[in-house]
Design a protein that fits this description.
By secondary structure, the protein is of the alpha/beta class. It has five helices and four strands, in the order βαβααβαβα.
């Protein structure tokens, strides 16, 4: 369950690419700034009830995926958790490079700005 009532709960891809790492870095930064509560996607995927209940009780779930495969979004939906906002890093024109993890600051900033706007709208 969220220890920050009223905040959106964010789940993220942390896949084996630059885009997965950008997705995760964006969620970590937003959580560190107190704008969202970050939770564990692997906990949801493993059907650990406390993570599922926390997401369901938050009422405002955001998923950030590195690419259109949408692993984070699909994992949440598979567990019966509605996703209110979905952000896809490659939608920002960022080219996915598998097994290369370079995060360029301009790319991260672009995703952070878009994610912040999406969160503000829910």
């Amino acid at each position: 369950m969220s220890d920050m009532p009223g905040k959106a709960m964010i789940f993220t891809c942390a896949g084996a690419s630059n885009c997965g790492q950008i997705a995760n870095a964006a969620a970590v930064q937003l959580s560190s700034e107190g704008l969202v509560v970050m939770s564990c996607l692997a906990g949801v995927g493993s059907h650990t009830q406390k993570y599922i209940d926390g997401a369901l009780n938050s009422g405002r779930v955001v998923a950030i995926d590195g690419c259109a495969v949408a692993c984070a979004k699909k994992t949440l939906e598979h567990a019966g958790i509605p996703v209110m906002q979905w952000i896809c890093v490659t939608d920002y024109g960022i080219k996915k490079t598998s097994n290369k993890f370079e995060i360029r600051q301009g790319e991260l900033e672009s995703v952070l700005n878009g994610t912040g706007q999406a969160i503000a709208s829910i």
